[in-house]
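Pilot study result, target chain (510 residues):
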Amino acid sequence: MSALLEYRGIGKVFPGVVALDGVSFAVESGEVRALIGENGAGKSTLLKILSGQYQPDSGDLLVDGQPRHFTSPRESQDAGIAIIHQELQLAPELSVAENLMLGAFPARGGFVDRHELRARATEVLLRLGEQIDPDTRLGDLSIGRRQMVEIGRALLRDARIIAFDEPTSSLSTREVERLMEIIGDLRGEGKAILYVSHRMEEVYRLADTATVLRDGTHVLDAAPVGPADADRLVGAMAGRKIEDIYGFRARALGGQSIALHGVEGHGLRQPVDLSASRGEIVGLFGLVGAGRSELFRLIFGAERRTAGTVMIEGRDLPPENPRAAIAAGLAFCPEDRKREGIVPLAPVRENLALAWRNLHTATPLLRPSREAALADEQIDALRIKTASAETAIETLSGGNQQKAVIARWLMADARILLLDEPTRGIDVGARSEIYDLIYKFAEGGGTVLFASSDMPEVLGVADRIVVMREGSVSGVVARADATSDRLLRLALPEASPPMSDNGEKETVPA
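Predicted structure:
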């Protein structure tokens, strides 16, 4: 095998920040190399150099042994390189077929050949295992299916070097399995695969080799890669042992803070009854499409409940009224952080103040100075890494953006947090910081409901686990009784009727 891709002594400096310092490694034909490290380690900068978005300040990028200096994404693509970005580079208003062939529409007689466009789109969708009408508007698809469309674009371009940036962060279990098969096929075809992921189980399963970055430097190479390397890899990334990531802390529980009775609405197949206490952390586990996100939106009022009640501290919360939910102390951090959680171009300060402003509309003259002071307090308290409160939030790492979204609600004195996939696309170190925020909030008497498809996270953080399956609650399991096998039996669609470990039907307490 020969190296299709090589980074040789790559350096990149931004004002006041050394993003990369002499990074060197190679990816051979038929090799899957994992690129791992915490947010800010330099992974995204390396991918942007490969894509032509950035140019290195020192060192060389070699493709097929030849130095290349890409000055645009088009030059990179023409060299046979494809980047599957975590933040999707798609046009939601166009059809699936148009997104798949964007920039390379088949033509006939000077016009787009719609028949050929649909045919080629259908072919790649079938290869991905997706039964999607090519004429479907992309924005109508789930995040997971949009991610598969992004992957399909690379397959259609027949790229020789493919970089995947957190490709499974929004995929269902079935889609993840199909992606693993596709990457295996690409390896067999002699492609060079660069795989960026924070999900170590995927790295162990998929990667032939791994390169670890920390603070812009290359600190470790591992080959082969497997679960036995866990402590070594995590230690190289974050300087801590893997068992320290979740850091669960038990705490005393208070009275009931939120109660759902017979809640129905979009995305739910059966009425949901659920309650949580002050100081409690409740995890909602399930596969993509299980109804967890939909339930959160119904609770918060982002979607209208068609039946049932939500009680906050004993008071009925009106449906379809996020303003009332915020006033009642309820907070919602959505799964799609970029589209629904932040205002990308606005500064960190304004993003933090959004909910606080909603509660202080009667005192506009006092807002600016008080708002700035409170924002600075949250930036310091949550250790949000930003040059200043006036920095655009889109320039922050994923972990710091997520801390900013949580800080927004702490600034508004929220008492109940609804966190939808709170660590999606976040590295090991930032995850640990997010968990610490969750524990501190609960220790202060707050209530946390968090939805996650990451089973180790749910097992490691939650006091109690609510399992959802196909729009309904299939079981509620106490932390002491929770096992991977039990949660999977409750979550999988093909599973038999929910049963407890003693053979009796699983009970679902309110």
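One observation from the pilot: Confidence is low (pLDDT under 50) at residues 495-510. A full batch analysis is planned for the follow-on phase.
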